[in-house]
Amino acid sequence: MASSKKETSSSKAKKKESSSEKESSTAVESSSEREKASSTSVETASSSSQEASSALASTGIVAGQTTAWSTNPNGNGDEELLVIQGTDSVLMSHNTVGPSGTMMHNDGTFTIENVSAGGTRFFVMDREIVLGEVTISGNTLTLNQQGQVRTYYLKNRS
């Protein structure tokens, strides 16, 4: 009888040992899975923030780059347009949708002066006269013409 009690307690010890090994290996797997998931989320977060910061940084005016901005973010109907050509000039125009289609009214091409803040702030000039101050934040451009403020949205970049 003594030997059967020993075998029972010995087999219970083996069961406990094997069950704690399983828990231990599961904990190791879970730990490594968490580390993997954590590093993946860090990579994703850092690449997302890099994309966001590069998108914002590249929205300012850049020599040799043309950007088109519109007061109508949907791109249909009447809109005022600004086409910024590098760091040199701004073409201002209006698109009016009439019964026979879209008509474009060109207001003129003006120069860019006093570019600052990484190309996100400058003045639009007509010879010596300041027509307005421009500030760009992300995909939004604000034109302040002697207190009359208009908001434009980035249409495209080339």
Number of β-strand runs: 8
The total of helices stands at: 1
Q: What order do the strands of the largest sheet run in, or round the barrel if closed?
A: 1-2-3-4-5-6-7-8
Largest sheet: 8 strands, antiparallel, barrel
Gap between N and C termini, in Å?
Answer: 91 Å
Give the % helix. Answer: 25-40%
Radius of gyration: 32 Å
Overall average pLDDT: 74
Note the run of SSEs as H and E. Answer: HEEEEEEEE
Spans of 5+ residues with little confidence (pLDDT < 50)? Answer: 24-32, 34-58
> From the structure provided, what is the oligomeric state, counting identical versus distinct chains?
single chain
% residues in beta strands: 35-45%
Backbone shape: globular
Structural class: alpha+beta
Summarize the structure in words.
The chain contains 1 helix and 8 strands, in the order αββββββββ. A hairpin with a 2-residue loop joins strand 7 (140-145) and strand 8 (148-157). An 8-stranded antiparallel beta barrel has the order 1-2-3-4-5-6-7-8. It has 158 residues and is of the alpha+beta class. The relative contact order is 0.12. It has one helix spanning 2-57; strands at 66-70, 79-85, 89-98, 101-116, 121-126, 129-137, 140-145, 148-157. The longest helix is centred in the first third of the chain and has 56 residues, at 2-57. It is 35% helix and 44% strand.
